[in-house]
Each structure stands twice: as structure tokens, then as C-alpha cells.
Specification:
The complex is a heterodimer of chains A (639) and B (258). Helices cover 36% and strands 16% of the residues of chain A. Chain A has 639 residues and is α+β, with helices and mostly antiparallel strands. In chain A, the strands form six sheets. Chain A has a five-stranded parallel sheet with strand order 6-2-1-10-18. In chain A, strands 12-16-15-13-14 form a five-stranded antiparallel sheet. In chain B, helix 2 packs antiparallel against helix 6 (195-208), helix 3 (147-157) packs antiparallel against helix 5 and helix 6 (195-208) crosses helix 8. Chains A and B meet through helix 2, helix 4, helix 5, helix 10 and helix 11 of A and helix 1, helix 2 and helix 3 of B.
Amino acid sequence: MAIDLNARIPHGPLADKWNNHIDSLRLVGPRNRPLYRVIVVGSGLAGASAAASMAAMGYHVDCFCFQDSPRRAHSIAAQGGINAAKGYRNDGDSAFRLFQDTIKGGDFRAREANVYRLAQLSAGIIDQAVSQGVPFAREYGGMLANRSFGGVLVERTFYCRGETGQQLLLGANSALAEQIHRGRVNMYTRTEMLDLVVAEGRARGIVVRDLVTGEIRSHAADAVVLATGGYSTVFYLSTNARGCNVTATWRAYKRGAAFANPCFTQIHPTAIPASGDQQSKLTLMSESLRNDGRIWVPKNKDETRSAPDIPEEDRYYYLEERYPRFGNLVPRDVAARNAKDVCDAGLGVGASGYGVYLDFRDAIKQEGLETIEGRYDNLFEMYERITGENPLKTPMQIYPAPHYTMGGLWVDYNLMTTVPGLYAIGEANFSDHGANRLGASSLMQCLADGYFILPVTIGDYLSRHPRGEIDTSHASFKATESEVNERVHKLLSLRGNRPSTAIHRELGALMTDSCGISRNKKGLAGALKSIPKLREEFWKNARVTGSAASFNMDLEYAGRVADYLEFAELMCRDAQKREESCGCHFREEYQTDDGEALRNDNEFTYSSVWEHRGERAPKLHKENLSFESIELAQRNYKT
Amino acid sequence: MRFTLHIWRQESPAYEGRMARYEIDKIDPGTSLLEMLDTLNEQLIAKGEEPVAFDSDCREGVCGTCSLVINGNAHGGFTETTTCQVYMRQFKDGDEIYIEPWRANPFPVVRDLVVDRTAFDRIMQAGGYVSVHSGPKPDPNSIPIEPDVAGEALDAATCIGCGACVAACPNAAAMLYTAAKVSHLGLLPQGQPERYTRVRSMVEQMDNEGFGGCTNFGECEEACPKGISIKFIGQMNRDYLRATVCEPIERSGKMEAQ
């Protein structure tokens, strides 16, 4: 199947593209909408908002999630806030400025038209959420409050204390609950998509496993929407939830949906470091801590004193020394890279040697204990809860953690993948963040996709095709179902002695080392040799217990690890091909004299789009990016 | 650290459950209780035994998936803590630890420590929303909301739907959960048009699911990992009373001609 990379970007001036596009789209009339069936996989911000919006329009929606309730999707863990170009602060904000910040933040590796539309739609998201009863922070006069966030010069972030993601998700989830109540959405919880069904070149449905009974079942629809999130758990330890996985998008890739920019993964600089082999996830600490904390490591490798006892002359404030202008406030990627650098040199602290100190001693001396405590009260409490140490007495330990993945399924302006009838929204697609996502932009993108974009664009596809053309009795469903069954039984036949979690941990260590904070040619080549061996190890020595026809979490986990063992290879391949540094993708060979990321715009101003070709190596296609409204420029935070 | 674990094992609702005993050693004090269970499971799997099934996802106390009764207390009995935020250094070396699922009729066991909490979702679906379509809406600043009111609504909305309130209640009442949603929307201007129909439908669904009634034990507030106040139950009761005594007046009829 030849892949069609026409992004279908509308003509006309940037600011008019979306409205002109809406006017040109074909629609499905209200009386016909209930006759169409749409599958939405995932119930996070993108999935819940899309399912609820389409159902409210009248479409019949089947929504699936692997959690026990749609409200538990990992969008719920987003803390900081959501950006919107409301311009409430009178500080010169506008849709164009939000667009500009997002393009620059993404280091010029995202599509202009998509990003502009995102900025345009951002204000409406706040209106929508408030109308659902999302209790955003308010000022004394009752107006919405804002805070500022990294990488921008305006205040445009809306928030609900430190739980903005939770409140926005509960808003979208309540809209979904209403539609379930009205019978327009069938909600399938504890149900995992294990494959996509494609017939006659179009997406026709999915094959799922009921995680309670173990039943393998097919669902047919007129279109399929994947809202299945990102793949940071390829690193095993990440800020993502335990259940997050790449399976749905990877299965879609193997059925013909091209995967774009898989190597663009964001590492957050301030998480609590791993404390030992038994650790299962990393917890984020807000970046705001870097405003008052000084980051350092001991100067001597064999330092044995406890942190407060180490005198000034034996401390290495490496960010302040290396970046005198920005000091501890260098951008996320720079902070992350330098932490890895000093730890690789053997100066790291903590049990694993992969941690650095974030010290509030001097801030307390200058501003007083009460002021600092008041400023970071809940963060200090959260830190103490996890580590058992009080940051007011002994420095915090922090280390970067995999957090968000910018890459995902390639989509056109309508959010449709290269498989007609298959859509990808939210973190599952590659569309808006380029090589790096700005803080407070993920919630915005999920909700723009789900509330406003997809419900309009999907009608254009549906109206062009007869409804209910193929049902689950079609041969393609039977064939896919039997492949899924075969795979489940193959997993259950594994009788080695290694739990799949152990192999996942090994893969995670390998990926963190070779395709994490910084990458180089040799490391990537090594990883590309090691991954197939690890895959072989899995299919030879893994152990999967239990039976197919029961609630079997071991089987679920093993299936996800098996997919990661394939996906990891594509990620490294992509990182190897992109011989430049941009955004979060730092290739050590390509840096400025100051150690900054060095883009190569002449050769790499494109999105890498990978096509699956069965046993043969995947093929790289390029979607060239052009910048008409904003000038291509090197990032600069020195002046 | 070394522990003796007593864990509820139950293959499926059709089978009788029982407490099983496990010994585990070499646990780092910085390990979380769930990570200790992960370690136990890896050891069981390597031996070819079926691991202990338990629910968890975000592991940072916000998704509400984890749900264990630890030593007789929902989420372990620590202040404002979810199961995933319990660490082994909070126990003594050599401790015996009892781990069971939520116990309540409306939350039937699925397997081992996993229970079915879909009853909560059905309460939500009965009315826990403001009926709105997606599309252009009025600017939020056209309806000012006092920060205290928004803050109180958020205090209620912070509920993570874990079900500890039910597990801790001697009556297995779901009133703190239901009240949190009713109050969140009832406090905000956006929730006013459906305020009284909402409370009626949600309370009715809560009763239909078989949850008990509140008799002011206060265990729910004690067990709630988000510290949601029992005063919201008072507010729900007031709204419910008003909803039942003020039946909507039928105004569609016409006066008969004289």
C-alpha cells in the first residue's frame, strides 16, 4: 500500500485556514448521524472529549478504555495548567503569539497550519470547560486567574491548584457520562484494543480483549479514533502511569498507519530519582523549584559526608558555572543533559549514583525559612512523603525523567492517519509539538482535538462512504481475530523463568542509556543490535502465567512489553537517521561550541514518517516543513 | 527489610476466597507497598505461580485506581494517603501485614484484590454533569465566581473516586462520594439549572446500587485520601430535602374554560 502524505493543509492566509476549511468540509446531517458508528479508543482528555462531542452531535459512539473507569486515564495526573490565548492580562498575548511560542518551543519541527489552529481554538477550550463546571482558580473579583509558565513572556496559563489535568478530565468525563446516560455512547471499561481491522484499504473496526473474562471480540464501525496516549513507558521508569503503553498505535502502525518522529521524547528535568531496583515509576516535582533551589553535586567522586556537611569549596554548582547567565534556570533539555553529564562522570548522588542535589539552604538564609516553606509547601510535603527526607533540612535529590512523547501516528490536517477512516488525537498523534512540547500545552492539544477539530473533520470522511458497509462477520474481522488469538496463546505458552517486567526493565535501561537525554551514533548502533537480542530473550525466556479466559494482568503486561520490544527499534532507527540536534533530540555529534543543540535546517526540516513493510526494514518518508509566517531561527537563551 | 504478608486470594467471584501467607525479604525501606507487591509477583511468576492481582495505575495518588485495605484500614490508615503512597519504611522490619480488597456488596471482587467499582460510574452517569454540547460558550468572566466558592467547589471536585469512603464505612455508604459531586456542581453557577434534578437522580442511583445510608460514623472522612469533608454530605442532604419537598410544578396544562 503506497502511503499518501498529503497533509491537506487548506489554502489561504494562516489565520483563515481553519474557518475556510470548515466551510469546505462535507457534513453529515443531524438525522443521519445516529446511523453512523464511531469507535473511540481511550478515555483521557482527547478520547473523552471526542466521544462526548461526537455523541452530543448525534453519532453513535463506542468508547473503550483498559482502566476500570474512564475517569482514570493518565491525563488526570497533569499538574500545572492549560495554556489559552485569552489575552486577559493585557500583556500583548494573542493567538499568533501562542502559535509563535509553540513553533519555537518545538524547535521548528511542527506544521505551521496545525499549530496556528491549536492556538486559535485554545480560548474556546477554557469557555467549554467552565461551562461544564471546571472550578478554575479565580481572583478576588471573580475573574479567572492566570499564572506564567516556562518558555514564554506572557501569563496565559489557567489552573486548578496543582490538579488542572484532573479537573479538566473530570469535566470531559462528565460530558461523557451524560452521553452514556442518554444511550449515545456505549462505554467498555477494562477492555483493551489489541488490533485494528483494515479491509479494502479502510479502517473498519478493532479487535479487543475483555480484561475481566478474557474474551476476544470484534467491534465494527464506520471510523476508528485512537486516543491512546504516549509511549514514555518504553523507558520503563517514567512519569507515566503503569498501564500506559504503545500497543494501540503500534498495532495500527503494523496495519498501515505511518508513525512520525518516534525519537522525539521529552525528558523532564526535575523528578525524584530512582531509589533502587524495585522502583516502578518516577514522580515529577514542579520545575518552579529551580527558581530558589541551587543545583550541585559533590566535587569529589568518593565523597562520603552527608550533603549539609559538605563545605562550599567541595560543592560543584555545575549549572551556575557552565551557564553563568541563566544558572539554575536553563531550559529543560539543557538542565537534563547536564545532570546526566555530571552523573556519568561519577559525581552523582543517591543510592543509584544518578541524582543531583537541589538545595534550598541559601534561599532560606536570604529569605527566611517561613517564606521558602510557604512558597513550596505542598511540593516539600510530597517530596518528604516519597523520600522520607525534609528538604528544608537536607537538599532534595532530583534527576530527569521521561515524561511526554511528541512523536506519534502521522495525521493530516483532519487528524486522519495514512489509513483512511483511522484518526489519531491527543498525545497519540505527532501533530503539534514538534521536537519539544511547552509546559501546559498537552492539555490544550488534547481538548482542541477532541472538542473542536475531530467532531467537524470526521463528518467529511463519513459523508463520503456508505455507513455500516462491513460488519464483524466480514472475513477481515475473522482473520484479525484469529491473529490476536494466536498471539495471546503464543504469549501464554512462554515457559521461561523471567517475568516480563524484568525484561521491560532491561529494555528501559537500554533505552534510557542510548536513546534518552542524549544520543550518539555509536550508542544507537549498539541499541539497534541489542534490541533484537532482547526480543529474542523475551520470546525464549519470559514466563507468562495464568490462562486466556480469565482476568490475567500478567498476560496484559507481557503483550505490552512485546510491542515495546518492537517499537523501541523504530525509535532508535529514527534517532539514528536524524543527524542533527533539535528540541529534545540531542545528538552529541551535533552541538555548538557552547554545548547547545545544533539544528541542521538544510537537511532536516522535515517530519520523519515511517512506513511498516512487514519483515523488511521500515521505510522513511519525509514530510517537508515550510515556515512562511515565522522565520527559521536557532534557539537562543544566552542573551 | 523482611515482612510476612497475609494476602486475600480469590480466583474469581465464583470461587471462595482465602488469606494466603507469603514471606518476603530484601525490601528497600524506600520501596512503596505496591512495589513490594510487584517484587512478590515477580518472584511468584518466576516460579510459575499466578501473581497477586491488584489495581494501580498512576502511582502518585491521583487516578484513584489503587484500592487496598492494609491492616484493616482503607489505604492503610495514614493521613490523606492513597495505597500507592504507602512506603515500607512506615512499617517495622519483620512486621506482619494484612492486605485485603475493598469490602462492600456493591463492589464485588473481580479477582484477588481487584474489585468492580462500576457502581460509582453509574451514579455519575445518573446526573453528575452539566448538560452542555461542545461549541462556542459565553466568556467565563461574564459570570464572576467568588474565589472562595470556586475553592470550595474544588475541595469537593478533588475526589478521585477510589471508594475508600465506602470501604471504611460500616454501612458501606457512598454518600461522601455522591455528595462530593453533587456539591461541586451545586456550588457553581453553571450547576444551578439541574441542581435539584441532579441530586434526586444521583441519590436514587446510589440507593439502587445497594450502598447503605449515612449514620454519621465519620469513617469516610477519616479514610479519604483527599481529605474531603463530611460537611458536603450535609449539603447534599439539604439539597435532597429541598428537591423532594419542592416537586416541580406542572405548568403545561391549560385552564379549563368556565
